[in-house]
Amino acid sequence: MFLIIKMNNSHDTLLEKLKKYSDTPAYPFHMPGHKRLFGDDSLPYRIDITEIAGFDDLHDPTGIIKRIEQKIAEVFHSEHAFMLINGSTGGLLAAISAVTEIGDTIIVARNCHKSVYNAVMIRSLNAEYVYPPTDENGICGSIDPESVVDAINENPTAKAVVLTSPTYEGVVSDIASISKICHIKNIPLIVDGAHGAHLPFCSFGVKGEPIRSGADIVISSLHKTLPALTQTAAAFLNSKLVSCDEFRKYLEVYQTSSPSYPLMASVEICVDSVGTMDNEFAEYERRLNEFSEKMRQLQHLRLLCHHNSCYSYDKSKIVILTNRANINGTEIMRRLREEYQLELEMAYPTYAIAMTGVCDSEDGFLRLSDALFRIDKGLRYEEKPPFPPLPHPKKANRKDGEVGQQRSIYAYPPGIPIAAAGEIFGEAERRYVEELLLAGVTVRNA
Ligand SMILES: Cc1ncc(COP(=O)(O)O)c(C=O)c1O
Predict the structure, then answer these.
(1) What is the dihedral of CA 33, 38, 43, 48, to 10 degrees?
(2) Per residue in 56-73, pLDDT tens?
(3) pTM greater than 0.85 (yes/no)
(4) Within this chain, do residues 145 and 223 fall inside the same structural domain, yes or no?
(5) Nearest residue by C-alpha to atom 7 in ligand 1
(6) Phi/psi zone of residue 180: left (φ > 0), alpha (ψ -120 to 50 degrees), beta?
(7) Span 219-252, pLDDT tens digits
(8) Which of 1, 114, 351, 422 could pair covalently with 415 via S-S, beta carbons 3.0-4.6 A apart?
């Protein structure tokens, strides 16, 4: 069990303030409708308030919320930080909107999450893509800085470069080089670091932690890899090119006008805690190292420990490769769930991902390694053809009468469009989707 740590003793934390307030006789003639009088303690009704006096305003923080944002900035070594309660999704929509006008061009790494594509749709942007290399498992590598140079040269009016680092699979791009390339042309770099909130605290040897590598805006889901409640995230702004005001203006557009105080209290607890968890992070790294060392004895399954086209690798993601075994990723995920009560994060035809974090227990790692050894024992070698790379769909040219997709088609997770809205769903895309469906991966059209 992890202790909740209070970092700054001079003020009550938001949670302490909420608890104290819930013990006063104050009667709520305001939202929310449960009036703090409903339900039991299994949900946080007692501390669920709206922006009443003394509790600040997420959209215009001057008091306790401002203090929390300052703490986030300090702990993550960022000039500015913003607390997000609509996940990285809200932060990415706001970041892209803050640097573009309707109809602008932006450069997007093709393996970006659907929230980036949704920003493109909402702002009627023209997205020009840079494609990462893909390996035999269909896993995308790092974005090559040279491909960003080429994209900028071909699109000199581009208003931003957007890429994901680390990816779902732990692949990290060379953010320092890419940000230098962008800044020569005064183009802001937005990094979707949704999967990398833990990186500033891990000594994994991961190069390219984006907040300190020159990216203008970094968006991180606190809830994905740190001890924080679902939906919580943070945005980090370190930029001469993007103004805080403009960014906050769009955060107000894409985030609820009734932010949840329990969620915000959880952000503060998370930030207070991770700033003081050096020992826990060291222990976590030891467990991960031991785990991957053990996994070298697997006969048929393998872990992705690095990617051939990878600048750096975040080893907190346990990516179980199935391309040399008579099993696929979805089947591994199903067997781990049904036979061993181990629930993974996602599965693709060629791999499955166990997502780990500093709160994972020794027992959790042990159960996973035992289960994988048992499953591995019953497998045999199978030679499989390489998984197809991410398709390069063609944009529909309306002048030539071409009709593009109305909606994006993607597997979720990871939410990377196989064909985005406005693109032609051609033969390569059809074959890619077929491979996913054959392996039991759910494909959405949304
Ligand atoms: C790469 C990437 N970016 C952004 C998001 C959105 O994050 P959130 O769920 O915090 O909104 C996800 C979600 O899985 C993701 O995988």
Answers:
(1) 40
(2) 999 999 999 999 999 999
(3) yes
(4) yes
(5) 88
(6) alpha
(7) 999 999 999 999 999 999 999 999 999 999 999 9
(8) 114
